[in-house]
Write a sequence for this structure.
């Protein structure tokens, strides 16, 4: 089983993956932030390149920050991006 | 009464003086008004502009979460935070924080807290546009910003 989730990417993560956002069918056994990253890296070389340095990747689920060890729960929207540089 | 933060994410420039005047006019109980404006530097002439990318929706939500926390921690009369996105030229403002309180300590600390968390947790990313017309790289996050944010974590956190 899987669920359909909207993925959004920002800054150089977006450039390396090559799309701004997309809908993907996320397998139900992918439960944590870290597992999402591992699963995405298996989708292709562009994902593997973008998400290679796990320390440099930040995540948000339903527009709230999560840690890689957190479960993603009922994620409708998952965002991946580098450390933020606003202000 | 706890202040309700005024949060704005916009491409347009802001007018710090006008925002300050509006806040001070709204209450005669304000004794201290602290303003912080973050500006785009020219980096010694190297930079033509900064491009600010943002996560629409989450940017506002995250700024509001930080601002609500500031209003819980300090007795503020007002807290306004404006963050721009899009192309910003050297000399222009990127971010404006105004904290107003009866006394100065709360206003200083709330503005400082707001900026520290904004820099490390509000979903904005800066990219350099260079003076020679080429596109520069994405600005790397500054570890000193993480250290600054960590100052606020401690006894006061649950």
């Amino acid at each position: 089983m899987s669920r359909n989730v909207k993925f959004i990417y920002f800054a150089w993560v977006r450039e390396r993956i090559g799309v701004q956002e997309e809908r993907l069918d996320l397998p139900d056994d992918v439960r944590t932030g870290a597992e999402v990253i591992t699963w995405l890296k298996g989708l292709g070389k562009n994902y593997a390149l973008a998400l290679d340095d796990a320390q440099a990747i930040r995540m948000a689920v339903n527009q709230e920050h999560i840690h890689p060890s957190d479960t993603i729960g009922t994620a409708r929207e998952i965002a991946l991006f580098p450390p933020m540089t606003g202000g | 009464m706890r202040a309700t933060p005024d949060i704005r994410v916009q491409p347009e420039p802001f007018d710090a003086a006008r925002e300050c005047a509006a806040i001070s006019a709204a209450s005669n109980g304000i004794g201290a008004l602290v303003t912080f404006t973050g500006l785009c530097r020219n980096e010694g002439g190297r930079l033509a502009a900064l491009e600010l990318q943002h996560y629409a929706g989450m940017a506002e939500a995250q700024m509001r979460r930080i601002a609500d926390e500031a209003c819980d921690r300090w007795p503020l009369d007002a807290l306004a935070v404006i963050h721009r996105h899009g192309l910003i030229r050297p000399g222009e403002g990127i971010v404006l924080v105004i904290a107003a309180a009866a006394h100065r300590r709360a206003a200083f600390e709330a503005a400082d807290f707001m900026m520290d968390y904004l820099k490390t947790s509000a979903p904005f990313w800066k990219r350099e546009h260079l003076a020679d017309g080429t596109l520069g790289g994405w600005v790397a996050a500054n570890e000193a910003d993480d250290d600054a944010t960590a100052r606020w974590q401690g006894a006061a956190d649950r």
Summary: Chain A has one domain: 2-81. Helices of chain A lie at 11-17, 33-41, 45-50.
